[in-house]
Amino acid sequence: MTSRRKLWLGSALLYALFVGWYTDFGGPLTEAEIQDFITKTRDRDLGGSASRETLIEFLRSDTGRQFLMFNAVDLAKNPPAIAGAPPNADAQTLIDLYMEHMIPELLSNASHPVVVGKSVANSLDLVGIENAEQWSDGAIMRYRSRRTLMKIIGNPEFYDRHDFKLAGLNKTIAYPIEPRIHLGDLRVLIGLVLMAVTALLDGRLARRP
């Protein structure tokens, strides 16, 4: 086998390994999986309004595909004191304590932030919703699947850290979408970069005597 062929086969194997890790091929959640999750989290409270009932319905309508979670966030100006946080911790400190757990959990499960940023203006388009004029931050998170979300929030440490998040928020809205168009999908971006790098290396090999 020539060096050039080994190069392309190695790149293809590397890409296949990445796609295999980044993609959930398990299909939709089964009712047994959902019932197991319900049992394990029966005494847990996610906070917010109707969040548990909505979450269970979200799991039961699973398609097995990745999804993006849109988050609009307004940080609390005077968050309450909470056990485990530094004295007089501000809202950003509390959110950072929550994300100390979430970021490693997300990355280890092929999930990650897509967009994170500060608000630069009040809501520019607002219809049919109250108290949504002002937001301090916004983020979009990619989850490999609803099975992955279930695994992350089934971890008991999630609930300990989730208290920091609730204390640091004045208000928030988070809702999931399954993208029909997602030009930032890492499977596309990494595939293109890997192909370009491999082609450049192949070109150098081809010019060797």
Could you explain the architecture of this structure?
There is one protein chain. The protein is an alpha+beta fold and 209 residues long. The protein has one domain (29-62, 65-178): 2-Layer Sandwich (Alpha-Beta Plaits). Helix content is 48%, strand content 15%. It contains seven helices and four strands. It has helices spanning 3-22, 31-40, 51-60, 91-108, 146-153, 156-168, 186-206; strands at 67-75, 112-118, 137-143, 169-177. Strands 2-3-1-4 form a four-stranded antiparallel beta sheet. The protein is globular. The mean pLDDT is 92.
Order of helices and strands: HHHEHEEHHEH
Classified by CATH, the class is Alpha Beta
Mean pLDDT value: 92
Number of distinct beta strands: 4
Beta-strand percentage range: 15-25%
Report the helical percentage: 40-55%
Spatial order of strands in the largest sheet: 2-3-1-4
Overall 3D shape? globular
CATH topology description: Alpha-Beta Plaits
Query: How many domains?
Result: 1
Please tag this protein with its features.
4 strands; single chain; Alpha-Beta Plaits; alpha+beta; four-stranded antiparallel β-sheet
Helix/strand layout:
Layout: H1 3-22, H2 31-40, H3 51-60, E1 67-75, H4 91-108, E2 112-118, E3 137-143, H5 146-153, H6 156-168, E4 169-177, H7 186-206
Antiparallel strand pairs: 1-3, 1-4, 2-3
Helix pairs in contact: 1-7, 4-6
